[in-house]
Amino acid sequence: VYLPGAGWVGLDPTSGLLAGEGHIPLACSPDPGSASPVTGVVEASGVEFDFHMEVTRVQETPRVTKPYSEMQWQDILATGQRVDDALAEHDLRLTMGGEPTFVAATDQGAAEWNTDAFGPTKRKYAAKLIRRLMALWAPGAVLTHNMGKQYPGEPLPRWAFNAHWRDDGEPVWNDPALLASDQDTDTADAADAARFARILAERLQLDPSLVLAAHEDAHYYLWKEHRLPANVTVEDSKLHDAMERARIVRVFNQGLASPVGSVLPLRRIDQAGVRRWQSAKWFFRDDLLFLVPGDSPMGLRLPLDTLPWADPATIEAEAEADPFAPRDPLPGAEALAREAEAAKQADAALVRTALAVEAREGRIHVFLPPLYEAADWLDLIAAVERTAAETNRRVVLEGYPPPDDPRLQNFSVTPDPGVIEVNIHPFTSWADLVRRTEQLYEEARQVGLASEKFLVDGSHVGTGGGNHVVMGAMEPADSPFLRRPDLLKSLLGFWHNHPSLSYLFSGLFIGPTSQHPRIDEARDDSTNELEIAFSHVEPFKPVPPWLTDRLFRHLLSDMTGNTHRTEFCIDKMYSPDSTGGRRGLVEFRAFEMPPHARMAAAQMLLMRAAIAAFWKIPYERRLVRWGTRLHDEFMLPHYAMQDFHDVLDELAMLGFPLERAWFAPHAEFRFPLIGEIAVRGMNVELRHALEPWHVLGEEASSSGTARYVDSSAERVQVKVSGWVDERYVMAANGIGLPMQPTETRGEYVAGVRFKAWDPPSALHPSIKAQAPLVFDVYDRWTGRSLGGMTHQIVHPGGLSHEDAPVNANAAESRRRARFFPIGHTPGAMAEPRVDVGHEHPRTLDLRRFA
User: Fold this and answer.
1) What's the pTM value of the predicted model, to 2 decimals?
2) Which of 207, 214, 498, 573 gets the most CB atoms within 10 Å of its CB?
């Protein structure tokens, strides 16, 4: 900047200071009304000059790092509030939760962040995240370490961190310092565990002499030692199974005669209208309690089958309460304490559940037994906390979670293949949903987790996990899907008629064998079956909840009959299998984890707007038979976005307008631009398109029978403006594309499907990778290619990247390095033959010309 009397001066935008020629001192006074340090007053040579400096982008394109301007975001928030007002006006009582997923921001090439459910660092990340979220979302909550799902091939059930709190705001756990974490160090041993169990028994008004010492099965481990080779020791057993090696070392180091922990037989019963704790003496043939060999917590290895036999008809069985039964408010902490003091031990009986206390890795672990009343579980938790305070021991709570009860809320952090999954509790309002979503993304970032990944080739993708939406109500009986089954019918019909809703927000793995297949992707006659089911659900007419489940259960499943792996999952709506399956919940599973919190909120807004619209005016349009068009048109960004704009237009007609620009970042993230060129006044654009993956036939592998996924094929879209169809032919590797006109004059579009790489197992193994793709704009009048472009699948110089890109800039540079706005066929050439396929008329399948 040139200032009279000071000459040329440079401005440091960070500090707001200026330096003149010859180091002439200049005074800068920032404008008090401006937040920018580059606005203010400069005094030079006794003369004051106003100045203002700002930086703006020449072109603002949709991007995931900043998806919305502040004005757009305020419009989104205001629209969400208007949708909330409509939901309240019509008394929907809708709640929405979710299951967002995260990966580590570093070391994304590790197996635990790609394929494995377990890993060396995943549990540590999850423990840090849930403690930070508890402080924000659930003050007074208690943290429990529970057993999660177990799938074939996994040696143990997956761990799960759960935060539980009361809906009325009373604390469940008062002193967070008494809850130990995996990183805490302590010196507790079996004697400390036994003392803890006896004091806890007294606090529950039980006889402490009923506490038993639990031992590892000495006979089993002596037999295992005897079976070891003669030239090895227990400490270096050379066993192939690493878990078995560690188990034997652990058992022998602690001593076969030493107890592992203590067991208190325990259950809760109702005696004359008073809830009491009951215990009993356990008898065994050897007068010792030997645990079942294994690596699980002690409470899961109790030898229950060796307890004295009793006629099953005489054993009192408890079950969870009916989720639709009315419930009184939970008793407060003072009331629970008074009941505990007044209670006496119930008469002795055969008790087959137990609380276990063991010292593991120097920490006291308390294994909670199964309980069936929320008040009983709260009473036991309070007793454990008071015992921990009395013994000055930090504890880890594990075992069975509390019974399902709308008066108790919870969220959890669990492992899934390649990701960490956060199961968020339901929200009733749009404001809460937005606030918690932004908090979750920020807290995950603070502990070193990310919501996006970068593949080795530079592709920018989500975490690989989902961002599923769980919809229902705080009380199962209030669920809008049970009160109005036609709402589920409307969503199913609307999503069926608009395939963009199934693909625009999903991840890499789509198609009939994905985690969220569409109803019409598995069977050709599924649309007919769906229409028959729809005929039994009329708008505003009551339908029994069990009938809604029966009508749609067998249609909302994947090709194998799995009711969970489907786009709309209703296995927790009104399933007859268990009380846990009758919660009035519908889960939508085709949302991938978006890289930005505000993009996630926009997806939720779309779903909320659709529910509000169809509650008022049910969707009754006839279902479309898409057939092969499903994987021909809607894999291409042009047709997907054209259909999505129709979605927004329909919602607007129903009174819920959403701006197209709010979903431009989603489209750019899903269909990134590869490159573009200009030829004779025509603009040619190349974009990534979608490609469904298919599961291959069974093959033998080192770990057993495996079914691989074929990801060798890829698809791109070519879109051109200013096109003269009578004169030009667009060709890819010498084959003409079936260019289709769009609604804009002179604009044409087509897809190209090709084999991108050669995996060991794939369809058509004799076809080699068809790279690079060379595109020509062929002129029929001159018989020559006027120009073109080249898309490389791998680095053109043969560079083999070993690691994934470290950030978005590095990823983009890898993608740009594979596109060249040159490379067309030189000289005269024969006119490319245009191939139009019968099943996919809008897509050229280059594999047919390999």
Assistant:
1) 0.88
2) 573
Q: What is the dihedral of CA 119, 123, 125, 128, to 10 degrees?
A: -170
**Integer Cα distance of 846 and 737 in angstroms:** 10
**Tokens encoding 34:** 């401006």
What is 193-242 written as a DSSP string?
HHHHHHHHHHHTT--GGG-EEEE--HHHHHHHHHTS-TT--STT---S-H
E-strand ranges in 593-690 read 673-679, 682-688
Mean predicted confidence (pLDDT) in 15-21: 49
Q: Is the distance from CB of 557 to CB of 563 less than 8 angstroms?
A: yes
**What residues form DSSP beta bridges with 398?**
145, 367
Task: Name the nearest CA neighbour of 506 among 548, 572, 567.
Answer: 567
CB-based contacts of 432, cutoff 8 Å, min separation 6: none
- Show the tokens assigned to 835: 């191939």
Place of tokens 């993230």: 669
Residue 636 burial (CB count, 10 A): 26
C-alpha span between 553 and 570 (Å, rounded): 7
Please say whether the beta carbons of 52 and 35 come within 8 A. Answer: no
Residue holding tokens 């295992």?
224
Higher pLDDT, 283 or 230: 283
Residues 632 and 840: beta-carbon distance below 8 Å: yes
Tell me the pLDDT tens digit for each residue of 391-415. Answer: 999 999 999 999 988 899 999 999 9
Percentage of residues in the chain with pLDDT exceeding 70?
Answer: 86
Q: How far apart are CA 539 and CA 553, in angstroms?
A: 20
Residue 634 in tokens: 């809607």
Q: Mean pLDDT score of the chain, rounded to an integer?
A: 87
CB-based contact 819:812 (threshold 8 Å): no
Q: Report DSSP state, residue 528.
A: H
Smallest CA-to-CA distance from 479 within 86, 93, 98, 84 is with 93
The string of DSSP codes covering 709-767 is: EE--EEEEEEEEES--TTTEEEEETTEE---EE-SSTT-EEEEEEEE----SS-SSTTS
Residue 686 sits at φ, ψ, to 5 deg, of -120, 125
| Beta-sheet strands, E only, within 539-654 | 568-569, 586-588
- In contact, 472 and 479? CB cutoff 8 Å: yes
Contact criterion met (CB below 8 Å) for 738 and 835: yes
pLDDT exceeds cutoff 60 at 427 = yes
| For residue 772, cis peptide bond before it (omega within 30 degrees of 0) | yes
Higher pLDDT, 397 or 252: 397
- Quote the pLDDT of residue 32: 45
Per the CB < 8 A criterion, the answer to whether 565 and 695 are in contact is: no
- Averaged pLDDT, 228-257: 62
From 496, 497, 471, select the one nearest 484 (Cα to Cα): 471
Range of weakest confidence among 135-149, 218-232, 725-739: 218-232
- DSSP-derived secondary structure for 448-494: TEES-EE-TT--EE--SSB-EEEEE-SSGGG-HHHH-HHHHHHHHHH
- Phi/psi region, residue 570 (left: phi>0; alpha: psi -120 to 50; beta: rest), is alpha
Identify the CA nearest to 102 among candidates 77, 85, 121: 121
Residue type, 604: M
What pLDDT score does 808 carry? 81
pLDDT for residue 306: 85
Q: Could you tell me the CA-to-CA distances from 573 to 578, 579, 652 in Å, in that order?
A: 11, 10, 29
Q: Give the span between the Cα atoms of 741 and 722, in whole angstroms.
A: 11
CB atoms within 10 A of CB 806: 12
Strands 101-104 and 568-569: unpaired
- SS3 assignment, position 813: helix
Give dist(CA 786, CA 353) in Å, integer: 80
**Cβ of 504: how many Cβ atoms within 10 Å?**
27
Instruction: Band the pLDDT of 4: cuts 50, 70, 90.
Output: low
The residue with tokens 């024969």 is 830
- As a whole number of angstroms, the distance between CA 338 and CA 558 comes to 52
- Asked whether 493 and 537 are in contact (CB, 8 A), the reply is no
